[in-house]
Amino acid sequence: MSTLTSVPGNLLRLTCHCELAAIREVARSVRGFLERQGLSTPEADAWELICAEAGNNAVEHAPPHARHLPIEVSIEISPTAVELRVIDHTSGFELPPSSELPDPLDEGGRGLFLIRSLSDSQRYWRGTGENCLVVIRQRAAPEPESAPPDPSVQQSMLEATLHTMTEELAASYESLSAIFRFTEELIRSGGDDRFMDRWLLELKQITGADWYVLRLLDESRGVLDVARTSHPDMPFPPLPLAGTLSPGGSLELRAVHGRQDVWFDPSEPPPQGDPLRCLSATLAGLAHPLFVAGQLVGSLAVGRYAGSHPFTAGQVNIVHTLSDFLGIQIRNAQFQKSTLQAQLLDRDYEVASRIQRQLLPKQHPRNGRWATLGFCESAQRVGGDFYDIIEVGSNGLLLAVADVMGKGLPAALFATVFRTLLRARPELARSPGPFVDWLNENLVEELGELEMFITAQLAYVNLSTRELRVAGAGHPPLLLAGVDHPAEEVLSCGPPLGICSSLEFHEERRILPPGARLLLYTDGVTEATYPDGVQVGTGPLIEILNTSILRRDEVERTIARIGELQGDIDGERPAADDRTLLLLQEDVPSTPPINLSRRHACHSPHRR
Question: At how many degrees (to 10) do helices 41-60 and 110-118 cross?
């Protein structure tokens, strides 16, 4: 590249080979020339880009026979404008009257668009063998010289800056000092409720505040309730987060809903109806929301009475730092308290579960060929299912199964009450109907008050006469099977216990067949669902009882097969309801033939 300057200082002429690399060098030289002439950086940037785009166009469109010819570039500076000329040896083109931003997929057009965007006028002269592009851009007006700064003003600004920095540093020191001091105290004392009083008193003294009101969230009631205040004699009602009092009626609610500070002073006081107005009608301060990890903890309103000077920036920083740290400590204390409560509740559940297990029969009676076995599983730690076996004389048994509405501790408590009442009247054991009447009369008031009920089934069996008496209260029918007696449902209709008083419960009577299987159960067994949502029903239970007779299974094996069925249905899913089984079973005689034709079985639809 060669350079020829015809007018010193105002004109730069350059020639270069018809190559893109040479054009980049020319563009940098143009930029350096303009910067030395005092043009601003934005102006130099614009001309460098214009020169590069114009030169690239001259190189890319040069025909093969003209590539040996040089490209000439000249740029001239006047007091008001800068003019660039680029001489190329292309076939030339017609300069359109305007240029739009081309489509991103188009191969050309962007260079001309950029040149027109960065300059004020463009002309293109076409000649024989060479063409000339002329681009003009007006110069920016020089900035007027500013008056020299006033030393006194600079000194005042410097002093104000130093004062602000000193104040912020002091505030940071006060905040850190208080945090370290109270952290040490919390570690030493474990953090009782008194730490809030000491913390707020420290905040009040450091900031020079006249009053404060700390509110904490009461999730059970959905309100912000006063936890601490500098004026405990003042009536500060709870603030409902949703309800009659709108956020606009309380600055504290407005701060919580907006998640930002809300300021107030005599010119913009708290609105009418705001509880803060009980302190004074003219207050100055702020309401600051307390959030920890995005969770609302409460709010802190702190301020001064009218006439006092407002909080400084450093004092506001102290309010933010100490109140947010206080919120963290409060949240931590709440978490520790809830953790302790959960541990105590877990222990209570464990004790309740142990007690409930102890209330179940510890031994299952056996009498000659007769055997009993029960099973009870709660969906939660404790549940409302219950079963009992009461021996009546030398040859009688009272079998009882009950299911209290619901699950958990309330259901478990009523199951315990039911067991106590059941054991209180052994003389009624031979008459299940009157026994259920009596149970209902003694439970209806308590169950009605809590809007609960109990389904139950009592079955008395005389092992000598083989007589069965059954009374039910809203409970699923028991299943009875035996040799030459396919399993059937023994219905004993009656409303659940606790629905209403003065009822008479009907007794259903049967004679037990040889090799009898008598199964009592709760609805958690038959209402278990397959993965597709279809309930099990009584069908699989009937099949197990019939097969048990054919195989002459022991009572343990029969119950185990029902347990395996429930396990196959549940898979990895937890049980949705409590489940209870109680089975009375007689050894199958070895001599008579066994005919269990399924077409005589009475049972609910089921799936295999």
Answer: 150
* pTM beyond 0.85: no
Distance of CA 569 to the CA centre of its chain: 32
Nearest C-alpha neighbor of 330 from the set 460, 459, 195? 195
DSSP helix/strand/coil, 439: helix
**What CA–CA distances, in Å, run from 457 to 82, 163, 392, 477, 502?**
106, 86, 17, 8, 18
Of 57, 7, 58, 3, nearest to 28 by C-alpha is 3
Structure tokens at 330: 């409060």
Residue 105 buriedness (CB in 10 A; 0-12 / 13-18 / 19+): exposed
Mean pLDDT over residues 314-341, rounded? 82
Q: What's the token pair of residue 118?
A: 């960065």
Delimiting residues of CATH 3.30.565.10 domain(s) in the chain: 2-138
Helix 408-424 and helix 432-449: axis angle, to 10°?
Answer: 140
Strand order in the sheet with 454-462: 385-392, 396-404, 454-462, 467-473, 508-511
State the span(s) of the chain assigned CATH 3.30.450.40: 168-336
Q: What contacts 553, CB < 8 A, 6 or more positions away?
A: 547, 561
Query: Is the domain covering 2-138 a CATH 3.30.565.10 domain?
Result: yes
Please determine, looking at this structure, whether the domain spanning 360-600 carries the CATH number 3.60.40.10.
Answer: yes
pLDDT at 167 over 70: no
Dihedral, CA atoms, 50, 53, 56, 62, nearest 10 degrees? -90
Backbone angles phi, psi at 397, to 5 degrees: -135, 135
For the chain, the average pLDDT equals 83
Q: Two tokens at 485? A: 């007696």
CA distance 289 to 300: 6
Residues spanned by CATH 3.60.40.10 within the chain?
A: 360-600
Return the sign of the alpha-carbon dihedral for residues 563, 565, 571, 573: negative
Q: What angle do CA 217, 220, 224 make, to 5 degrees?
A: 25
How many other C-beta atoms lie within 10 A of the C-beta of residue 106? Answer: 9
* pLDDT tens digits along 401-448: 999 987 777 888 888 899 999 999 999 999 999 999 999 999 999 998
pLDDT for 282 equals: 85
- Homologous superfamily of the 168-336 domain (CATH): GAF domain (3.30.450.40)
Q: By the 8 A CB rule, do 274 and 251 touch?
A: yes
Rounded CA gap, 323 and 161, in Å? 27
In 78-150, alpha helices (H): 110-118
Look at residue 395 and tell me whether its pLDDT is greater than 70. yes
HEC assignment per residue over 389-404:
EEEECCCEEEEEEEEE
Amino acid in position 87: I
* Structure-block tokens of residue 126: 């076409």
Note the pLDDT of residue 296: 93
What band does 181 get if pLDDT is binned at 50, 70 and 90? Answer: low
